[in-house]
Amino acid sequence: MAQRVGAGLALAVGLWATHAIAEETWRTVLEGPVTIRTREVPGSDVHEYEVTGALDAPAFDLQATLTDPERFPKFMPHVTEARILDHAGNVDRVYTRIDPPMAAPRDYVTEVTLVESVRADGTGTFRQTWHALTDALPERSGVTRITINEGSWVITPTADGRKSRIVYRFRVDPGGWVPGFVADLANKKAIPETLRAIEREAQRRGRERDVGGAARAGQPG
Fold it and tell me: What is the widest separation between alpha-carbon atoms in the chain?
């Protein structure tokens, strides 16, 4: 199966989360099925975030979801445009635009690298990294260009392969003025909601894959 590299999700998941807490060590923002931690980055006022937990979908289907950015507008909150600019080996350059509530539109271009893939039998680890490209496209009128956007996904299957453990890290500067209550909303609501959207899309892909496999199995040899 051909595997696209995908797009960095840092902005779509936690656009306003970057200035919420200033600590030199990890500090927990939200604890539960999904745990969110943040820490200060030396020499920068843009904080790093780490999201850990388990999603109820196979790693293979989560990988397929995260490496198909052109489908993001269909299920990812606030993403209105996503397209692959070019593809070379295990690297994609991807343009993404989001229209968040109570804020002006934002966009960004990321260089996304597929470091490691889950195999077709569901084993292995999905690793993806990305960073922003500041001059890849001209800026659009009325849209704030994001210049700091970097992160990674690490997704591994559970023992039975039906669920997956995730480690998602990102550092994003949304630009402009960010109200504190919006940052708190992103920490406690937007990130879990986006993870649920990714989980549902992966489950949809899994059902589609199961139907396709059953259909092929029923074909005469």
Answer: 64
Which residues of 11-163 form beta strands (DSSP E)? 27-30, 34-39, 48-55, 79-88, 91-98, 106-118, 124-132, 144-145, 148-157
- State how many domains the chain has: 1
Please report, for residues 10, 44, 147, the alpha-carbon distance to residue 137 in angstroms, rounded to integers and kept in the order given. 19, 25, 12
pLDDT < 50 regions, the chain: 1-2, 10-12, 16-23, 180-181, 184
User: Please, are residues 128 and 114 in contact by the beta-carbon 8 Å criterion?
Assistant: yes
The model's pTM: 0.86
CATH at residue 68 = 3.30.530.20
82 phi and psi angles, rounded to 5 deg: -155, 125
pLDDT, position 6: 66
| pLDDT score, position 172 | 86
